[in-house]
Amino acid sequence: MLWHAIAPVRRYTKASHDVVRHPRLCSDAKILLLYVQGLPDGQTHVALSEHGRKLGIKGRAFQRAKEQLVVNGFVHERRVSGERGLWVTHQLFSNVPLSEGDALVVWRDAGVGAEASPSVQFPAVGEPGGRSVGHQLPVEEELGENSSRPPTEPPGDDGDVVELSPQESQAERVLLSLRHSHRQLHLGVAEVRELVPVAVEWLRRGVSAGDLRSVLSSGLPSDGVRCAVKFLKHRLVQKMPEDPEERPQKSSVREEAPPPVPPPVAPPYVAPLVTCQGPGAEHVFRSFDGATECPDCQQAAAWARWAERRAADLGIDLAEDAAAAVEAGRDPDGWRGRLAAAARGAGGGDQ
């Protein structure tokens, strides 16, 4: 890959590599962050959604980009009571991630949330009227039940701010971001603080912030959620994952299985000792297949039979020396020498 870059001398925005290479920010979130960072001071009062609309980031794409900026600490929102009791949402945008404690310091320095003095309030229109005394309003003219819901995020007092741990801040951001997934899961700050201890236990047990958000926002009832805080508390408690510290630790030493027991081996067959029936001194041998003579006697008898056939072929009478030939058959040179001598004698007589 070839790389060619010319550093601009004007109209540029410095961007940190931590932002450009952030693994948990999509391209829309990065573009929105860099765009707002380079805005002049006169356009900082415009809402973040207006800047996204100018960049063509609308609808679900904008909600996804904003949610990632809020979860990762680049955008913080706070609702405060403005003039004449109207609620106003202030947005804090930063090019570096800020924790909730750091954001509160910025809010405090900017004076966001400070109540205005009564002397600067816009006066009511018209002259004060007289006060009716002594009569009760008729039944049909009594005021009915006030159906308007109070704001779910009342302005917090800076003196009551509780410093949260990193895991508690992460769990709080996840719970507050559920409103962007489903309107039914809109929680106030007080409701979120009630659920933070249970959500932190999920993070402690190894569940990531994205998985926790997916578990809480998926599979909602078909008839809707009546009370978001009760529904989320029930789901957090009932679907609590297993604590890895309570799992039985497996032994790192692998238990070797006992070696297989070999089958019993039959003892080798040993032929019995029997007395040889052949000529000569009495001796014994181990008889196989019912043999009655030892191998030496069998070999001597075989040589004797061969010698008789050979002598018969040569016309030599070896009957008188048959027993001696059998006995001499044990010696390879006994009867052979005699047979060869007899053959030579028979041949000389013919000549």
Question: Can you give keywords for this protein?
Answer:
rod-shaped, 40% helix, 3 domains, 351 residues, Arc Repressor Mutant, subunit A, mainly alpha
CATH class of the largest domain: Mainly Alpha
Q: How do the SSEs run, as a string of H and E?
A: HHHHEEHHHHHEEHHH
Q: Count of DSSP helices?
A: 12
Give the rounded overall mean pLDDT: 75
Q: What's the CATH architecture name of the largest domain?
A: Orthogonal Bundle
Summarize the amount of helix as a percent range.
40-55%
Enter the CATH topology name of the largest domain. Answer: Arc Repressor Mutant, subunit A
Cross-sheet strand order for the largest sheet: 1-2
Distance between the termini: 112 Å
> Beta fraction of the residues?
5-15%
Question: How many strands appear in the DSSP assignment?
Answer: 4
Q: What composes the largest sheet?
A: 2 strands, antiparallel
Ranges with pLDDT <50 over ≥5 residues? 116-121, 132-150, 154-159
What spatial form do the alpha-carbon principal axes imply? rod-shaped
**Helix/strand class:** mainly alpha
Structural description of this entry:
- By secondary structure, this protein is mainly alpha-helical.
- It folds into 3 domains: 13-114, Arc Repressor Mutant, subunit A (Orthogonal Bundle); 163-245, no CATH class; 273-350, no CATH class.
- Helix content is 40%, strand content 6%.
- The chain contains 12 helices and 4 strands, in the order ααααββαααααββααα.
- The strands form 2 sheets. The chain has a two-stranded antiparallel ribbon.
- Helix 2 (27-37) crosses helix 4 (59-71).
- The longest helix has 20 residues, at 295-314.
